[in-house]
Amino acid sequence: MSSVSISQLKTYLGRYLRAVRRGEEIVVTDRGRPVARIVPLEKDVEEKDGLDALVQEGIVRPRAKAKGRLKPPPGKGSSGVLTALLQERQEGR
Q1: Cα(17)–Cα(1) distance, rounded to whole angstroms?
Q2: Residue 35 — pLDDT band, cuts 50, 70, 90?
Q3: CB-based burial of residue 8 (10 Å sphere; 0-12 exposed, 13-18 middle, 19+ buried)?
Q4: Helix, strand or coil, per DSSP, at residue 12
Q5: Spatial strand order in the sheet of 26-30
Q6: Which DSSP string do the residues of 28-93 spell out, in sequence order?
Q7: Can you list the domains of the chain with their CATH numbers?
Q8: What gap in Å lies between CA 72 and CA 79, rounded to an integer?
Q9: Whole-angstrom Cα distance, residue 10 to residue 36?
Q10: Which helix (H) or strand (E) holds 27?
Q11: CB pairs under 8 A, 24+ apart, for 61-66?
């Protein structure tokens, strides 16, 4: 089992994930104190058919639903700057 600081993990994430794929466990430290452990998935988890199975087993959580893109309220015009920008785009300037 090896140990890595958060900053080193961010810099060399691919390298550490390859080590985990080979079966190694990685302890992540913050200022020398352990805060997390990255371990390889069990073989039966890897063979499941996708994310849905992992969600059903409680291994991962689904992403929260996005509330959609921000749009101006219906019936209200755009601000002057935005209107000018959109006009320029439409006119090809």
Answers
A1: 13
A2: very high
A3: middle
A4: coil
A5: 2-5, 26-30, 33-38
A6: EEETTEEEEEE-PPPHHHHTSSSHHHHHHTTSS-PPPPP-----PPTT-PPPHHHHHHHHHHHHT-
A7: 1-60 (3.40.1620.10)
A8: 10
A9: 14
A10: strand 26-30
A11: none
19-45 average pLDDT score: 89
The C-alpha atoms of residue 24 and residue 75 are separated, in whole angstroms, by 58
pTM > 0.90: no
- 60-78 confidence digits (pLDDT tens): 887 777 666 666 666 555 5
Tokens of 43: 């073989």
